[in-house]
Amino acid sequence: MEINIGINQADRKEIADGLSRLLADSYTVYLKTHNFHWNVTGPMFNTLHTMFEGQYTELAMAVDEIAERIRALGEPAPGSYAQFAELTVISEETGTPKAEEMIRQLVEGQEAIARTARSVFPAAEKAGDEPTADLLTQRIQLHEKNAWMLRSMLA
């Protein structure tokens, strides 16, 4: 059945492609944050363990919301490690860095997600896609705050 939500197919595809990159970045940071939650050690253990849990829990909900928006636009949502690896700008971590390096990597990841979300705005605005613009605004605000909170631990 044709989709008739007031956004043409080409614009829906362009927006969904941007959201797919956002989904891949978000999932990669989710996985990295969960890894760091499990493996953090040192004098900031309790603080970081708790902070990382809050952040990966929020990201788990966010990836579902992003994927559902892609589906509402009529496009398939990427859902495999291979697809995410192809779409993301964030490097995965296969080792167990020290706590300070974990924080630094997560700051970079949070900032990258904010930049990716911001890059989708022009297509959403051009198409009058207010739900996507709202989603992007919320993601940017949250990731900029998370980056600030993490960055403050490095000062």
From TrEMBL:
<dbReference type="InterPro" id="IPR008331">
    <property type="entry name" value="Ferritin_DPS_dom"/>
</dbReference>
<dbReference type="InterPro" id="IPR012347">
    <property type="entry name" value="Ferritin-like"/>
</dbReference>
<feature type="domain" description="Ferritin/DPS">
    <location>
        <begin position="17"/>
        <end position="154"/>
    </location>
</feature>
<dbReference type="Pfam" id="PF00210">
    <property type="entry name" value="Ferritin"/>
</dbReference>
<dbReference type="InterPro" id="IPR023188">
    <property type="entry name" value="DPS_DNA-bd_CS"/>
</dbReference>
<dbReference type="GO" id="GO:0016722">
    <property type="term" value="F:oxidoreductase activity, acting on metal ions"/>
</dbReference>
<dbReference type="InterPro" id="IPR009078">
    <property type="entry name" value="Ferritin-like_SF"/>
</dbReference>
<comment type="similarity">
    <text>Belongs to the Dps family.</text>
</comment>
<dbReference type="InterPro" id="IPR002177">
    <property type="entry name" value="DPS_DNA-bd"/>
</dbReference>
<dbReference type="GO" id="GO:0008199">
    <property type="term" value="F:ferric iron binding"/>
</dbReference>
<protein>
    <submittedName>
        <fullName>DNA starvation/stationary phase protection protein</fullName>
    </submittedName>
</protein>
